[in-house]
Amino acid sequence: MPEAPLPVCHSPRMPDAARISELLHEAAETHHVVYRITDGDDPDWASWYADWLLNLSELPELLGSTPVRSHLVHALVRLDHEYTAESPDERWEDWYAERLSTYLAD
Questions:
Q1: Around Cβ 78, how many Cβ atoms within 10 Å?
Q2: Residues ≥6 apart with Cβ < 8 Å to 91
Q3: Which residues are within 8 A (CB) of 102 and not within 5 positions of it... i.e. 6 or more apart?
Q4: Spatial contact of 11 and 41, defined as CB atoms under 8 Å apart
Q5: From the CA atom positions of the chain, what is the Rg in Å?
Q6: How far is CA 57 from CA 18, 85, 106, in A?
Q7: Is this prediction's pTM over 0.85?
Q8: Residue range 52-88, pLDDT digits in tens
Q9: 2, 23, 78, 104: which is deepest, by most CB within 10 A?
Q10: pLDDT band at 35, cuts 50/70/90?
Protein backbone atom coordinates (compact mmCIF):
# COMPACT_ATOMS: atom_id res chain seq x y z
CA MET A 1 0.00 0.00 0.00
CA PRO A 2 1.51 3.39 -0.99
CA GLU A 3 2.26 5.84 1.76
CA ALA A 4 0.00 8.87 2.05
CA PRO A 5 1.71 12.14 1.16
CA LEU A 6 2.68 14.38 4.04
CA PRO A 7 0.38 17.36 4.54
CA VAL A 8 1.64 20.64 3.16
CA CYS A 9 2.09 23.28 5.80
CA HIS A 10 1.53 26.87 4.71
CA SER A 11 2.67 29.48 7.19
CA PRO A 12 3.41 33.19 6.80
CA ARG A 13 7.11 32.49 7.42
CA MET A 14 7.32 29.85 4.67
CA PRO A 15 5.33 31.16 1.71
CA ASP A 16 4.34 28.98 -1.19
CA ALA A 17 7.39 29.16 -3.45
CA ALA A 18 5.43 27.81 -6.42
CA ARG A 19 2.90 30.64 -6.16
CA ILE A 20 5.65 33.25 -5.75
CA SER A 21 7.33 31.78 -8.83
CA GLU A 22 4.06 32.19 -10.75
CA LEU A 23 3.85 35.83 -9.66
CA LEU A 24 7.43 36.47 -10.75
CA HIS A 25 6.64 34.92 -14.14
CA GLU A 26 3.50 37.04 -14.45
CA ALA A 27 5.50 40.16 -13.54
CA ALA A 28 8.07 39.28 -16.22
CA GLU A 29 5.41 38.82 -18.88
CA THR A 30 3.69 42.07 -17.90
CA HIS A 31 7.00 43.95 -17.83
CA HIS A 32 7.84 42.70 -21.31
CA VAL A 33 4.49 43.95 -22.62
CA VAL A 34 4.92 47.35 -20.95
CA TYR A 35 8.47 47.66 -22.30
CA ARG A 36 7.70 46.10 -25.69
CA ILE A 37 9.14 49.05 -27.56
CA THR A 38 12.57 48.26 -26.06
CA ASP A 39 12.03 44.48 -26.25
CA GLY A 40 11.83 44.35 -22.46
CA ASP A 41 15.05 46.26 -21.86
CA ASP A 42 14.77 48.33 -18.67
CA PRO A 43 17.86 49.25 -16.63
CA ASP A 44 15.60 49.95 -13.62
CA TRP A 45 13.68 46.66 -13.96
CA ALA A 46 13.90 45.78 -10.23
CA SER A 47 12.04 48.96 -9.25
CA TRP A 48 9.30 48.20 -11.75
CA TYR A 49 9.01 44.59 -10.56
CA ALA A 50 8.92 45.65 -6.89
CA ASP A 51 6.17 48.18 -7.54
CA TRP A 52 4.10 45.65 -9.49
CA LEU A 53 4.64 42.84 -6.98
CA LEU A 54 3.72 45.03 -4.01
CA ASN A 55 0.76 46.87 -5.52
CA LEU A 56 -0.72 44.59 -8.17
CA SER A 57 -0.10 41.04 -6.94
CA GLU A 58 -0.70 38.77 -3.98
CA LEU A 59 2.97 38.80 -2.90
CA PRO A 60 2.39 40.69 0.38
CA GLU A 61 -0.35 38.21 1.30
CA LEU A 62 1.90 35.24 0.49
CA LEU A 63 4.74 36.70 2.55
CA GLY A 64 2.44 37.50 5.45
CA SER A 65 3.38 41.20 5.37
CA THR A 66 4.20 43.97 2.92
CA PRO A 67 7.95 44.40 2.55
CA VAL A 68 9.48 47.85 2.27
CA ARG A 69 9.75 48.58 -1.46
CA SER A 70 13.48 49.37 -1.34
CA HIS A 71 14.14 46.06 0.45
CA LEU A 72 12.32 44.18 -2.30
CA VAL A 73 14.26 46.07 -4.99
CA HIS A 74 17.52 45.20 -3.21
CA ALA A 75 16.51 41.53 -2.86
CA LEU A 76 15.63 41.30 -6.57
CA VAL A 77 18.94 42.84 -7.64
CA ARG A 78 20.85 40.57 -5.25
CA LEU A 79 19.03 37.51 -6.58
CA ASP A 80 19.77 38.58 -10.15
CA HIS A 81 23.50 38.89 -9.43
CA GLU A 82 23.64 35.55 -7.64
CA TYR A 83 21.57 33.74 -10.27
CA THR A 84 23.80 35.10 -13.02
CA ALA A 85 26.97 34.12 -11.13
CA GLU A 86 25.77 30.61 -10.26
CA SER A 87 24.01 29.84 -13.57
CA PRO A 88 21.70 27.19 -12.08
CA ASP A 89 19.71 24.83 -14.29
CA GLU A 90 16.34 25.83 -12.85
CA ARG A 91 14.14 28.66 -14.12
CA TRP A 92 15.01 32.02 -12.62
CA GLU A 93 11.48 32.41 -11.25
CA ASP A 94 11.74 29.17 -9.28
CA TRP A 95 15.23 29.98 -8.04
CA TYR A 96 14.25 33.49 -6.89
CA ALA A 97 11.03 32.23 -5.27
CA GLU A 98 12.91 29.73 -3.12
CA ARG A 99 15.10 32.52 -1.70
CA LEU A 100 12.99 35.68 -1.74
CA SER A 101 11.34 35.45 1.68
CA THR A 102 14.69 34.65 3.33
CA TYR A 103 16.35 37.64 1.67
CA LEU A 104 13.56 39.94 2.79
CA ALA A 105 13.96 38.70 6.37
CA ASP A 106 17.69 39.58 6.42
A1: 15
A2: 21
A3: none
A4: no
A5: 15
A6: 14, 28, 22
A7: no
A8: 999 999 999 999 999 999 999 999 999 999 999 999 9
A9: 23
A10: confident
